[in-house]
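In this section we walk through a basic example: taking a raw amino acid sequence and producing a predicted 3D structure, encoded as discrete structure tokens. The instruction is simple. Fold the sequence below.
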Amino acid sequence: MIPTRGILATWRPADVVAVGAELDALFENNEGFGPGGKLADLRSAVPDGYGNANPNWKGQAAVAAGAAVGRVSKYACAFVDLGLGPYGQVSREAAALARAKASIDELVSVIESGDLYVTDNWTVLVRPTPMEPDMAKLMALAAQGFQTQLNGHLTTLGLAEHRLASPLVPDSLFFGQMENDLAGAPKDAVPGLLGTERARESAREAQQLELVRHMQGTVTRKETMTRDGKPVTRLTMLDGSKQVYRSDETGETTEFYDSGGKLYSTRKVQLDGETRTELMRDGKSPVVITESKGGGDAKAVVDGVTLTIPSHSDIASALAGGGVSGGVAGLNPYVRQPPFSAASFLSAGEAASVEAGMGISGPGLAVLGTAVAVGMAEDDYTKCVAGYQGGAIIAGEVALMLAGPELRPVAALGVSTATSLATGAIGTAVGKMMCQE
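The resulting token sequence is shown next.
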């Protein structure tokens, strides 16, 4: 398994190396297999249930190491009779585990010496400090490069831990001692990284998507001002994009700008509860989306043609169900959650309560989800079906052709792979909902 960063910090693989060396010596000399032998001496010298001496060291290797030492006196003869003798592998793989942990610790130290950091679930992100868009682009690219290196070390660690456990777990199960322990073992901190090729790709995509959410949804600056005598809140995101919130006697309006300062969407909630959203297009009239109070299907007008699309709440639910939500995965000490749900659009009052350092990726993702939904409806669902049945990127490309690249604030980062994966993930989530209707 691959532990979380916090759990790995408590691991002591050097101790397991020492135990393995003692076991190797005993088996090499064929000593200690009877009562009172050296193996029994070793057993008495090690705390009972060694694998649980540090409660934070968990996983198959931890369980297996504790089981091996704790029961070695009782089962040594059985291991020898079966011809298993697994202890040479314990010392070898424990040494590999120690080397992998040292490599991870060294790389994380390098990563965190600058403007990047590593979350508890091993995602490399950019520190949420104000920076120019070009620098944000550079840091996002650096994060991707370091992520690839870190994933390699994490894979080595996970495989060493698995090999350390493999000769012991089946034997322990043979004696019926560990079934309950293994059933409650913790899951990988990076699901899929030790799996099939497709599973590894999915793990990498999830990390890329987290980077996109972080860049376009982490607030680095909040400004309050007045416009026509009314209060206005402007939030600047880590990628340089901006969201402007204002309220007046006609309702509440939100404006979305990319990192270059170009307006790419507006959304107004009128006093009667009706919502009007515009998606800007270069050289064309905006896509206009209206939604009545209380939700239900929304209507999108594209070049004079009226299309029915899901409501913004349905889109938000689809994104959350597809793993494309505004939350922050894992322990992230640099990004705080706002005191309200930021899974979709915000009200002017909610925006006013946001502070620098908070994560609100929901609004930006909601705009992208709406654009994808319009693109799928406009294409009569054919690309939608392809989108969630295997060509997820297609669904995103439909929306991009329709709405223009300025609809993607993350595009300003220049991280094309991350952008495509994010849009494809949104297309997959929205496509499943729309195609099943």
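Looking at the output, two observations stand out. The longest helix spans residues 133-165. The two ends are 39 Å apart (CA to CA). In the next section we compare this with other chains.
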